[in-house]
Amino acid sequence: MNKFHGTGVALVTPFNADGSVDYDGLKKLINYQIDGKVEYLVSLGTTGETATLNKDEKKKIWAFTAEINNGRLPLIAGIGGNNTAEVIQEIKEFDASGYDAILSASPYYNKPTQEGIYQHYKAISESTDLDVLLYNVPGRTASNVSAETTCRLAVDCKNIIGTKEASGSFDQFNQIMRDKPADFLLISGDDPVALPMISLGAVGVISVIGNAFPLLFSEMIRLSLKGDFKAAQLLHLKVIEFTRLVFEEGNPAGIKAALKYFNICSDQVRLPLVPPSGRLSQLISTQIKQISL
Questions:
Q1: Quick check: is 96 in a domain?
Q2: pTM here?
Q3: Could you read off the pLDDT of 196-216 as tens digits, one per residue?
Q4: Which residues carry the site feature described as L-lysine inhibitor binding (predicted)?
Q5: How far apart are the first and last CA of the chain?
């Protein structure tokens, strides 16, 4: 399989009680994912709370993640933003040692036209020799990367190799699958719809839930890719309520509550995010116990 087939996990950034980066927790998390047999890791995607990290912190986290991973799994770095020139500068300053690709979320807040989105990604593509994955998440960016724009980029920019699609639109998924180049990767950006997306031709998922259940979730994805949807469905249904709870008070507060239960890291987040409520933490703990049974 392609190295980005299967389950990639969008790693959280663990924090200490004083808000500093918890590198011990991050090391435990990376090893937990590798032991859980996921296919690849994403460092500092939006689940990593990149909006609240400064440049020095990002550089240290990327370097630390590559060091701990030590070539065991493919690595993707999340580098995006709504200032194209600044994104390109960050890519140029990025130490790509140990990394295989860049995941770049579409520009938020500006609400560019489709032509603006196309030119943004084209400029990113031309600024790096690394492979690039698009990330379409209109619920956070307030604009959609259309199927037409996605496929146009796939054809015109040879190092744009796939898209993490979190539009929630199966009509859009269908259009991408119909019109994309054969080797262009459609990757689910939403855990709850990863299984049905694979039935349409997606090659896997970049997951939040995998932080907590790497072994279970990656096995569900592998079964789906093999076409064994009956077996995959059993695992899919097993985590539906857990998944709903994890996102109830926003990401990554919920998934950090689960990681706290597993003694991997605390549920500390940085403002403007706040830790999960006691009620939600208890519900998540109850679900983990049920899933473990």
A1: yes
A2: 0.97
A3: 999 999 999 999 999 999 999
A4: 51, 82, 86, 108
A5: 32
